[in-house]
Amino acid sequence: MGCCISTSSDQNNGDAVSSACLGLKMCGRKRSKRTFADHLTMLQHLSSIPNRIFTNGKSRTSCTFTQQGRKGINQDAMIVWEDFTAEDVTFCGVFDGHGPHGHLVACKVRDALPLKLLSSLNSSQIKQVAACDACSNGNPKSEDGNAEKDNLVEDKLTSLWREAFLKSYKAMDKELKSHVNLDCFCSGSTAVTIVKQGSNLFMGNIGDSRAIMGSKDSHDSLVAIQLTVDLKPDLPNEAERIKHCKGRVFALQDEPEVHRVWLPFDDAPGLAMARAFGDFCLKEYGVISVPEFTHRTLTERDQFIVLASDGVWDVLSNEEVVDIVFSAPSRSSAARILVESAAREWKLKYPTSKMDDCAVVCLFLDGKVDSESDYDEPGFSSATIHSNHSGATIESDDGHNSEPSLQRNFTVRSSEDNDSFRRMPGEVTAAVETVMAEDQNWSGLEGITRVNSLVQLPRFSQDRPDS
Q: Compositional bias (Polar residues) at which positions (predicted)?
């Protein structure tokens, strides 16, 4: 509905004004009587939107899977939205909630952020369209200077998406802060989101969920390329910003490799990421929701993209993830196979710790997923089709029923938990293994213990600081 952008096949006049149109379908035709607000109203019926999946399954170009860990309700969420603004545009995202209402925050962001991205994109497009009212079908471009003009179009397209990502993330956090029925004072969510438009890949990221890509090198061997950086508090720029805002960044003696964000006046909450939606108890002290935006031009060597929450990256390297997805018996089962592999690694590497939730999106860049359905494969029953966000008792990864819970995962830690951690039996702490990962993988758990997955949520006063 006026949000269609394409740089692949549109043939406009060869001047700078036409390039600024970026192939918008709004150019050169009368404005529709239906406003964009009407379009967003229609999108409130999200479950009925075609080509949008947010549960375990597959689409034309992707497969998705999430599995609850052993710490209570599943706080991970995911989405693939094909034909997002046009037929060649796909939106993907993975969201990892934390805090007592983290599962609600993650689902809220999953549903609302794409709509805000559409709205922000439309707003930016209107500004561009105002500068190219004369744009029409036009004459084909001349061959001279095509490369320069293509670069100009790509730069304008990247600028358009950057502005849309920044605006939508800001609007999303603002909505969470003012939400009357959702307490985000010490709850929040990460977000790793991508938009694939033709050969262009636009990415926005906050928190420690991650996106990687499987690509062929010059020897035709499959290699892993990390697309986003885990935004941890110990990264120099992140730590400097937090400390400048009077927040504190340090690691506890019991887990020296996990740097956390703490209030200036209390050893709480201990957030293990530098950027997140929500977490308003720390927003005045350096934790922000501004995404790290990046653009990448895809090539024929690029095979697939994997988005996953930190429950996967805690136990698997980038290279292992690429190998697992590539060697999956079918593309439609790749996400499920990856989550199952992560679950096995959790049991092997951290037998005394509670497995974290895992959510995976696999996007295949050639636009093809197998015809066979995951639901017909062994081990994939109809009972696992929908992810559990209800808090009902479900079967955990070790085959036992886990109690319904809103227990916080290890991303947040309180001062009271430090004492209980030190009082844990020595044989428990001695049994916990470490993860050895290479620096370029930016693992959030390099060489740390996982006993901290047992901690509880810090308790805050009911009185909130003035906004």
A: 381-393
Predicted pLDDT of residue 411: 64
Per the prediction, the chain carries an average pLDDT of 76
Against a cut of 0.90, is the pTM above it? no
Specify if 378 maps to a domain: no
What band does 388 get if pLDDT is binned at 50, 70 and 90? very low
Over residues 444-453, the pLDDT tens digits come to 343 333 333 3
Give the Cα-Cα-Cα angle 82, 88, 90 (nearest 5 degrees).
Answer: 35
- Residue 168's Cβ-side half-sphere holds a number of Cα atoms within 13 Å equal to 30
| Residue 430 falls inside a structural domain | yes
In a domain, 268, yes or no: yes
DSSP-derived letter for residue 435 is B
d(CA 388, CA 259): 30
Total structural domains within the chain: 1
User: 203: alpha, beta or left, given left = phi > 0 and alpha = psi -120 to 50?
Assistant: beta
Q: Which one-letter DSSP state was computed for residue 244?
A: H
pLDDT at 412: 60
Q: In angstroms, rounded to a whole number, what is the distance separating the alpha carbons of residues 172 and 153?
A: 28
By residue range, what is the domain housing residue 91? 16-368+405-454
Domain containing 128 — which CATH number?
A: 3.60.40.10
Q: How far is 75 from 98, CA to CA, in rounded Å? A: 7
**Helix, strand, or coil (residue 107):** helix
When pLDDT is cut at 50, 70 and 90, the band that residue 415 belongs to is very low
Q: Give the pLDDT confidence of 259-291 residue by residue, as tens digits.
A: 999 999 999 999 999 999 999 999 999 999 999
- CB 192 within 8 Å of CB 94: yes
> Is the separation of the CB atoms in 382 and 46 below 8 Å?
no
Contact (CB, 8 A) for 442 and 435: no
DSSP H helical ranges for 46-192: 102-130, 146-178
Cβ pair 373, 63 in contact under 8 A? no
Q: What is the pLDDT of residue 153?
A: 80
Q: How many CB atoms lie within 10 A of CB 257?
A: 15
